[in-house]
From TrEMBL, chains A, B:
UniProt keyword annotations, A-Z: Lyase, Pyridoxal phosphate
EC number: 4.3.1.19
GO MF: L-serine ammonia-lyase activity; pyridoxal phosphate binding; threonine deaminase activity
Keyword Lyase recorded: yes
Gene Ontology biological process: isoleucine biosynthetic process; L-serine catabolic process; L-threonine catabolic process
Name of the protein in question: L-threonine ammonia-lyase
Cofactor(s) needed: pyridoxal 5'-phosphate
Organism: Roseovarius mucosus DSM 17069
Length: 304, 304
């Protein structure tokens, strides 16, 4: 089945469970840009799309769902599981921080905070899966996940997207893979990664997925150590460019979104915009650019 | 000239200067509701509409503009004046607080922080107007202001608003007057006021504008001591109901907008929603409700 068809089916499957997030045309720092406010999705990021698509197209075992996640994916899986009546056990690394841990806990999951970083949580989740037969939802490198994330681009086109180029932040690559799967060659998709967390950039250079060190202000959302194979395949086939941005540019874009638009997003949610504002990506004259705002789970919680 | 015509003209006049703010349909606490995110307007509230409409339809004197405001109106006037190349002197009461004072200063106005409350700032602004011939922009009770604010409702209908009833927070009444002027009897408009700052409610009871005490969490935006006469006239003619909400309900609605939608707004911006969520306004079965999110200038600044 072609990606467009998978994504169309995913869109129909999840329609009753996800929000149609708003879009707008705006000028920021003198640059016209189309925005989609996907951080307004359930649990504050696009991740709910892939989670629902996965859970709705699979027979979930009695043992329920298991996931390891430092944040947005874990919250989305926990939310989708709760809405669909499944048990979910989420392994969260301690370094995720209290805001994201509280967000996941609020979804009603069986939350297991694991000392250390993501790798430890992933190991514990795998043990649980083997021991119980629980189903694991991959955060980015699974067909159902990618097809679910692709619905955000299908929805944006249905809302009248008017752009030559779409800038998308990349961590493990589930979101951009979905966008590439949906758009094909119809529009240009540009990947944006933090300089200190650039698994796609490294893989495009090496010609294969390679492990990278991850750090920086957006690492708790974009800090995949290795790009997904689905993403890399689509990116190579479509000649995608990966643009790198500094942490300082990400923080400036985050501040501008608040100062100019009263949108308070996490650093990962401002990363794609950072490429445009910092000049890391320079549109040609007349090129119409769109930026997907992908996540809003800022820490600390501003109302806590 | 009828209000609809004035508002149509205002819409054409200000189109190049204001944002078309996004709308969405969402379910909050189990209640379906249409939202318009007007806090994404320039300077974080709908006030930019009235400010631009006023400045664009008047010959601004050499002495420029003067306004007294503790917040959103002052920021909007300062912004509009700067964009149109006029000098603006804004008198701000000290109690407005550092966030709103910084917001106004950032627009490039000649900012005068006045000890005390709004009345002192208004007195100083009046002195300046008399001494210099500067033009004063009224925050709510002037035809040009009301026509400008009415464009938000015209825009929402153009964006496909699907609602029987629109809930609007009321301070001095400029925004709701514009909505009433535009909608006439086509949709029901419900006023929402804080219990501790309810100039329209008091005026509807007394049959004429009366002075009220103002306090509470939304007072720095909704704390008008006396309702505007334009607003009261339209509200009486159209039989508008004013629903009162407690501060606690406003803060709960504010928290829910962040928790569920990642929209961080000031208390005034959550006041209309509070009526729906607290049950102060109970829709009839099948009644489709819309809520205008009108301001986002929260204090303290979450990124400061």
């Amino acid at each position: 089945m072609a990606w467009q068809e998978r994504i169309s089916e995913a869109g129909a499957r999840i329609a009753a469970h996800v929000r149609r997030t708003p879009v707008m045309q705006v000028e920021l720092a003198g640059v016209p840009v189309a925005l989609k406010l996907e951080q307004m999705q359930h649990t504050g990021s696009f991740k709910a799309r892939g989670a629902f698509n996965t859970l709705l197209q699979t027979a979930v075992p009695e043992a329920g769902i298991v996931a390891a996640s430092g944040g947005n994916h874990g919250a989305a899986v926990a939310y989708a599981a709760a809405r669909l009546g499944h048990r979910a056990r989420i392994y969260v690394p301690e370094i995720a921080g209290p805001s994201k841990i509280a967000l996941i806990r609020a979804q009603g999951a069986d939350l297991q905070v694991v000392p250390g970083a993501y790798a430890e949580a992933a190991a514990r989740a795998a043990e649980w899966r083997v021991a119980t037969g629980a189903m694991e939802v991959h955060p980015y490198d699974a067909e159902a996940t990618v097809a679910g994330q692709g619905t955000v681009m299908a929805e944006w086109e249905d809302q009248g997207l008017d752009a030559d180029t779409v800038l998308i932040a990349v961590g493990g690559g589930g979101l951009i893979a979905g966008a590439l799967g949906w758009l094909g060659a119809r529009r240009r998709v540009v990947a944006v990664e933090p300089e200190t967390s650039c698994a796609l950039h490294a893989a495009l250079g090496a010609g294969a997925p390679v492990d990278v060190e991850v750090s920086g202000v957006a690492a708790n959302a974009l800090g995949a150590r290795r790009i997904g194979e689905i993403c890399l395949g689509l990116a190579q086939a479509q000649g995608v460019q990966s643009v790198l941005v500094r942490d300082a540019a990400i923080l400036e874009a985050q501040a501008l979104l608040w100062r100019e638009l009263r949108q308070l997003v996490e650093p990962a949610g401002a990363t794609a915009l950072a490429a445009l504002l910092s000049g890391a990506y320079r549109p040609a004259p007349g090129e119409r650019v769109a930026v997907l705002i992908c996540g809003g789970n800022i820490a600390p919680d501003p109302l806590a």
